[in-house]
Design goal:
About 20% of the residues lie in helices and about 25% in strands. It has three helices and 16 strands. A hairpin with a 2-residue loop joins strand 11 and strand 12. The chain is elongated and about 90 Å long. The N terminus is likely disordered.
Length: about 270
Amino acid sequence: MNKRVSDKEPKPLSSQKDQYNIEQPLLHYQKKKWRMKNMSMRSQVYEWANLAPVGVTSTLRRTTADVPKALVANREYDLFIGGVGNNITKPAETTATQFIVIEDIACSATLSGAVQIRINTTDYFQNPDVTDMVGIPGLASPYPRGSSTTVFAAAVTTAATQITAENLLKSFDLYPDVYVLPGQTFQILYTPLAATAASTQVVSAFVKYTLYDGPDALIANKLLELGVTINPNNVDWYKRSLIEQQQRGAAAAAAAAAAAATNGGSA
């Protein structure tokens, strides 16, 4: 039987796991307990699409029975809580012991769609004159890779249309990565510049990020102070540096103690 720890704060993202105590009886006088702990550093991906069950506009879980939902032109749709397509139950945010690095974003090239990152109330991508823009177009960062700018209905798809349809490759890389600091809220916004023309038109968007939790979040903040890029390799490098520093300190202390004992004995 799974028992949720009552004093554990709920995690902000649906992909993050709470801590559970798992008990399994062995004999009438024995019990063995396992504890599943949260991983402190993990890679996450989130895919959104304008798909939901018939009769509703959004859903918490995708199914094969979902149908496309209409989208309005020039409207921002929050991938997490936008009310259309697959959503989660609360805004995406970090706790005081979490650090997120957003590494990739992409969206469908159809509908002239674009994807934007918003940290609290600030949009990451802006025009050179610091005015608002819709974000990175799907033409520059298409999802999925190799998709076309045109959606062909199954009834009219022919060998000719398949040949003339282009296969888009990405020309944009999210570099440097975008950091979400502890206590911040972030949104991934999809904006179509044209409305969906048919009830069968499906668009999607994608975000990839790495979540650092607990001690790894502390290391991520330290790397940020040092001006070092935050990625799993550099976090592991910092851990090794701390261990080596402790080992050198312990060795130096042991050597000093041995020298003092030798000097004291000879005196």
